[in-house]
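Predict the 3D structure for this chain.
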Amino acid sequence: MADKSPMLLAYLSRSEGWTTASELAEHLGVSTRTVRSYVTAVKVAAAPLDVILSSPDGYRLNRDAHAEYAQRDRAADRIGTPRERVTFLVTRLTHSGVELDVHELAASLFVSESTIEADLRQVRALAREAGLELIREGDHVRLDGPDAGHRRIVSRLFSDEQAHGLIDLQRVQDSFGIDDLSGFKTDVMAVLEGQGYTINEFGLDRVLLHTAIAVERSRGSALAAEAPEPGDAVAKDLDRLIAERFDTRLPEGELVALTALLTTRAGTRVVERGEVGEHVDVLRRIVGRAQEEFLVDLDDDAFLTRLSAHVGNLLVRAREGVGNPNPLARTIKSSYPLTYELAVFVAAEIQREFTITIGEDEIAYIALHIGSHLERRSTHGERLTCVLVSPGYHDIAELLERRILPALGDDVVIDRVLTRTDVDPAALHTDLIISTVPWEVRPANVVIVQPIPTDADLDAVRGAISRIRRQRRRRAIADQLLLYFDDALFFRDLTERDAEAVIRVLGERMRERGIIDDDYLDGVLERERISSTAFTEWLAVPHALTMSAKRTAIAIALYENPIPWGEATVQVVALVAFSAKDRASFQTVFEQFVEVFSDRTDVQRLLRASTDFPAYIDELVRLIDE
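Done. Predicted structure below.
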C-alpha cells in the first residue's frame, strides 16, 4: 500500500477543528487502523516535535510544530559536505568561460586547499564521464568541452542528489541566477499544450534544469546572438520565451536540443480521435499477449493510442541512450506489484520488438498508463447518478447546476435537471437527489439546498455523497460475506466448550446442509489433532487439508467467555469448508475476515454487537470497511 502520510498531513492542514479517524480513512481510501499507523509514523519522524495532536475527538495539526518540521531538514544554502562542495564547484565551472582560483575557493568554502584538491579530483572524474575535461593552469581551473557535456554533468549531479525525487526548481534557480523559473515553466506548459502535447511534469522539471544551464551559458555568446530564426513551431515559441524571460537567445544547436528534450521528455503528442498511432499494431499484439498471461482486460483503443504515443517518445530516448527519471518509480513498484509486473512484461516485449533497453523508470511510466486504464475500467459503471430538482425561474436551474458541479467530483454524473414543483422523489430512480423544493417527507438520498447553494449546502451534498458511497461499499461487502456465511451456520454460546466437540457441532450442521460429507469432517478433526488452528488469541479456524467440500462456507460460533483451544483460548470458532472452485473469489473475503481478529478492540466490539446473525453481518461489514 502506498504511504499516504503526506496526504494525511495535507488534509489536516486544511481542517480547522478535530478530524475523526473515519473521516481521514474516507478521504485517503484506507482503514482507520491504517490511519493510526500513518499518524504514528509521522509522530516518530517528527519527534520531538508534536506535529499531530490526538484526542477522543480525533486528530488535529499542531501548525507551529508542523511548520518547524517542514523546515527542519532544509539546508539548501549550506555547503558543508563533500557532495555539496562538488555540486557547487561543477555549477560554478559550467558558467560560460569561468575560471576558478583554487586559493579563493578554499577560503570562501572555509576548507583547506588539500580538501579542494580532493574535490577537484572528483570533478575531473565526473567531467570525463560527461565528455568534458577539467583544465588546470597554475592556480586556476576551468571546464572545457561541448555544451551538451556541460548540461549532462550538472543534470547528473542534480539527479543524483534528488534521486527519484522531484527537482527543486528554486534550488536550480538559485544555483544559476535564473529569475522566475516557475513562471517560465507556466509559459512552456502553455506552449506545449497549444501545440497539442500533454504534459509530463516530472520530465518537464528536468528539462527546465537543462534550460537553466543553457541560458546561463548563452548569455553574452556571439553564437546565440547570431542564431537564425527557428522554423519548428515549438522551437520558435521557446526562442521567444527565453528572450522575453531571460533577455538572451540560445545558439541554434542548443535550441534544437532543448526543443527535442521538451517534445520527448516533457510532452507527448496528443493523438486525435480516429488517428492511428505509429506503433499501435505492434502494441496491440504485445497487449494481446499480456492479456493472455495476466488475465486482465487491456483491449481498449484509447488506451492503446495513449500508450503508442508514449512508446514513440520512449523509443527516441532509448535510442539516444537517455532516460526519463520517474520519482514515482519506487512507490509504484512497491505499492502496485501486480501492475508493475504487468508493465515489466509489456516493457520486455517492447524491448524485444524494437531492440532497445528499458530501465525501471520507464517501466514505471508504462505502469502508470496500465494502472490508470485498469482504474478507469474498475470504476466504469460505478459512478453515482444524480438528479437536480429546481423549479423553473429564469436561469436559476442553470446557476444551481454550475454551483453544485464542483461539489460532485468526477465520479458523480447529473442524469437530469427537473424544473417542476410536482416531482415525486420516491419515483426518481437515482443515487442522489439535490432539490430546492423543501419536501417535508423525503427519502434518505435527498439533499435540500437553497436555490443558490451556500457553502453549508455544498458540504451537505459532499456528506451525502460520502454516505451513499459508504452504503454502496458496505452492501457490496455484505453481498460477498453472504456467499459464505449463513444464518443456519451461526451459533452463540454453545454448551460445548471442547475443541473437538465444537467442531463436531459445526461440522454436523454443514453436513446436514450438503456442504461437506463425513470424510471432510474427519479431515477437519485430523488436521486439528496435528496442530491447533488458533490463528490469533481470539480466533480458531478449523479446516481440512483438502478442498473437497461441495461449496465453500463458514460455520461460526461466538463465545462471550473464552474457551480452551489447544494451548490457547479463543472466543470465535470459524469452521471453514473449502471448495477448490471457489478458491480465488473466497481468498479476499477470508483475508478481510481474519484481519478483523487481529485487533482485540474490534473482536470485543463484534462479540457485543452480534446478538443474532443479521447483527453479526452488519458489524462484520462495518469492521471490514473501517
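The CA atoms of residues 458 and 516 lie 54 Å apart.
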